[in-house]
Amino acid sequence: MADSLDIVRSVADLRSRVQYWRDQGLRVAFVPTMGALHDGHLSLVRAGLELADRVVASVFVNPTQFGPNEDFSRYPRQEERDAALLDGAGCHLLFAPTVAEMYPAGFATKVSVTGVSEGLCGGARPGHFDGVATVVTKLLLQAQAHLALFGEKDWQQLTVIRRLVRDLDIPVDVVGVPTVREADGLALSSRNAYLSDGDRKIAPALHRALQAVAAGLREGKSASELCHRAAADLLAAGFLSVDYVEARAAADLTPLDRLDRPARILAAARLGGARLIDNIAADPA
Ligand code: PAF
To answer: Which residues line ligand 1 (CB under 6 A)?
Structure first.
């Protein structure tokens, strides 16, 4: 285990550590993760250090956001490595609860965000955003930080979290942090570890497909045609299947066909043993 990064496993210990800092007038940032950390997660810690005096990260592979045939059991778990990376990035505290701490016997509550949870990943992964919304609500109430940071790579997740924080009056500022990419455009993701060497070479086609849609929208073309072509290009590049390629309004994920508001182009597709997701912005001139 890392020498200097403190790890707490109970909600009571987390709360008392954060309360101690708050009593000293310090600002606290919170970075929820499922571990298997990469530079995208560390960019959240770095952004937290810019905005606050103390940064708390959590590592919890949340069972309720995985479907029955998804990768919960094989999701990479590497707490010692994660703790060392967080320590190196300047994080002050790691909250790493057990499943029993998060979901004690008798647990019976679900947070469900309508509208923005529907379609896209919510359509392809039924129940996923209920699991995310429930665990994030719990984590935010447990940590009681001033701000919480989430990656823009999961744009729909970020939109769901902004909605639930507003709807439930949770006193925290939600901060979105831009996606970190490899030099060839592939968005960093813990699930990139599932890619074979051959699939890794194909994977940047996802980002290129999004860029092609964004460029076409800026030229005034229709989103539905552009997205249809992008999905075909992904299959031609070697992706096994495409869950969706869509253009949506950036703020509330309502569908759009022309670039008449700030948009997000979002896609999810399967490549080898991985389901990759990505999105980029497309703004009107
Ligand atoms: O983005 C993630 O890693 C997870 O969905 C989150 C927000 C930590 C909730 O489990």
So the answer is: 32-34, 62, 65, 132, 135-136, 154, 157
CATH code, residues 190-276? 3.30.1300.10
Yes or no: say if 2 and 80 are a contact pair by the CB < 8 Å rule. yes
Find the 203 Cα to ligand 1 centroid distance in Å: 22
103, 136, 162: residue to mutate for ligand 1 pocket, most atoms within 8 A of CB:
136
Minimal-distance CA residue to ligand 1 atom 5: 132
207 counts as catalytic = no
Distance from the alpha carbon of residue 132 to the mean position of ligand 1, in angstroms: 7
The candidate with the shortest Cα–Cα distance to 28, out of 16, 38, 40, 36, is 16
Which CATH number applies to 6-177? 3.40.50.620
- Tell me which residue has its CA closest to atom 8 in ligand 1: 33
Domain coordinates in residue numbering, the chain: 6-177, 190-276
Query: β-pairing, 147-151 with 263-271?
Result: unpaired
Q: What is the pTM of this model?
A: 0.97
User: Do the strands 241-249 and 263-271 form a parallel or antiparallel pair, or are they unpaired?
Assistant: antiparallel
Question: Rg of the Cα trace of the chain?
Answer: 19
Tens digits of residue pLDDT in 227-282: 999 999 999 999 999 999 999 999 999 999 999 999 999 999 999 999 999 999 99
Q: Report how far residue 31's alpha carbon sits from residue 139's, in angstroms, rounded to the nearest whole number.
A: 10
